[in-house]
Amino acid sequence: xxxxxxxxxxxxxxxxxxxxxxxxxxxxxxxxxxxxxxxxxxxxxxxxxxxxxxxxxxxxxxxxxxxxxxxxxxxxxxxxxxxxxxxxxxxxxxxxxxxxxxxxxxxxxxxxxxxxxxxxxxxxxxxxxxxxxxxxxxxxxxxxxxxxxxxxxxxxxxxxxxxxxxxxxxxxxxxxxxxxxxxxxxxxxxxxxxxxxxxxxxxxxxxxxxxxxxxxxxxxxxxxxxxxxxxxxxxxxxxxxxxxxxxxxxxxxxxxxxxxxxxxxxxxxxxxxxxxxxxxxxxxxxxxxxxxxxxxxxxxxxxxxxxxxxxxxxxxxxxxxxxxxxxxxxxxxxxxxxxxxxxxxxxxxxxxxxxxxxxxxxxxxxxxxxxxxxxxxxxxxxxxxxxxxxxxxxxxxxxxxxxxxxxxxxxxxxxxxxxxxxxxxxxxxxxxxxxxxxxxxxxxxxxxxxxxxxxxxxxxxxxxxxxxxxxxxxxxxxxxxxxxxxxxxxxxxxxxxxxxxxxxxxxxxxxxxxxxxxxxxxxxxxxxxxxxxxxxxxxxxxxxxxxxxxxxxx
Length: 554
Known about the structure:
Layout lengths: L4 H11 L4 E5 L2 E4 H17 L7 E5 L4 H12 L3 E4 L6 H11 L1 E7 L3 H10 L5 E5 L14 H7 L13 E6 L7 E6 H7 L1 H5 L11 H13 L5 E4 L6 H12 L3 E3 L8 H11 L3 E4 L1 H17 L11 E5 L5 H8 L5 E8 L2 E9 L10 E2 L3 E4 L14 E5 L6 E2 L3 H7 E4 L2 E4 L3 E5 L5 E6 L4 E3 L2 E3 L1 H9 L6 E9 L3 E9 L7 H11 L8 E5 L12 H12 L11 E3 L1
Parallel strand pairs: 1-10, 3-4, 3-5, 5-6, 9-10, 9-11, 11-12, 12-13, 26-27, 27-28
Antiparallel strand pairs: 1-2, 7-8, 8-18, 13-14, 14-15, 16-17, 17-21, 19-20, 21-22, 23-24, 25-26
Helix pairs in contact: 1-2, 1-3, 1-9, 2-3, 2-6, 4-5, 11-12
């Protein structure tokens, strides 16, 4: 089936015009409305000179507008691009410049950060604001989405091929974010297991009519998924699974934008009869389980009767939280090791507390390869890198060297090898060891140490610095730093503020140790194990209790 996601959505909308496609707080959008609004935005994009291959960036909170923007881009063969809404003005401009973005659709609350991009990214031809601005800075002049749609006739649907692309920017091991290039045909194939198999389809439909039939039947029989991405749509797991739900006549449910409101999430699950929620490890699932406990203690437990599945990806989900879910609902918890570069590599699937402790097992397309390219022998204790040979991206945008390093051909098979280290147990289970590159995975967000170190070293009182990831029960890992300074007046808070002005909040070190100098070898290499010990001594006081300030001077 050589068609784009947009072509399938258009066909599903013709078959199921009155079925609800998207539910956001206070409003439902039918498939017909979804298609019409996307067609109007597509016409506006074309009117601004945006066409096939041009990049359309989404700097948006979760909501219908995000999916409408993706749909509009797909309709004209443009390339949807995700932009992390936590990015500062400078980080946003850097990403848009790297992507050669032609258009940017942004949430009104983020308008102040768009001003810099409007002035410094020459490829931008159209800015569209979604909702009202907040604060004193109204941002650049840009039409509001609703006004633009009202003034623009819908563009007629035109079939688009599966060779059309979608970019998924990742802040992974490359330092600055890199655009992972997905052909839509490959992305479609990657959704066979999570999207089509639950409906009894073991293969991707070969004809568009077959895809529409599957969607119509699933909706009529009540088997089309009601999916709620609790994580941002700017992340691959949230977006790809939401796009998949719309392929099969399902419904995407979004929560209020802003900080995670666990009570609101569970109330929405109940009122919207959500079947699948998508989370990202302990950082997202922890507050959800805590809220379930608090509601029970208050004598007002949440209604979880509609919930059948919880999908976690980006960082491992602890058995403690899985137990909390299983004890309260008849859910299947799917914990995935995956990346923007491809996968999933392995799943840990549990259906009840009897399945705990959870263990990861690789999918058939996954291997763990040693340095010489040979598969790691199960039970040998040898570490290797996770390699996946299923549907994978073309590479990184404008980075041939990194593409060659990550997307490798071994014995005639092309793999994606992002750098995840693992061992294989005797029974074939995967023991995940983390990223060999040292990238910090904090709540599903990837932080490259060098980027944070560069900001710390720009401070006039910092002579040396190292940034590392430390284990964290809530976030999987947290960012920590050991800094060398001779200024006794310098504080960790001052350095945290300096980083916060330049980088997104999740990149700010939560733990900072200040020292006169760092321990390095004669060749200049830093002893990471020593740095970890310095941070560990910071986190707990001599009596074993957590320190309150999480910053110290040695």
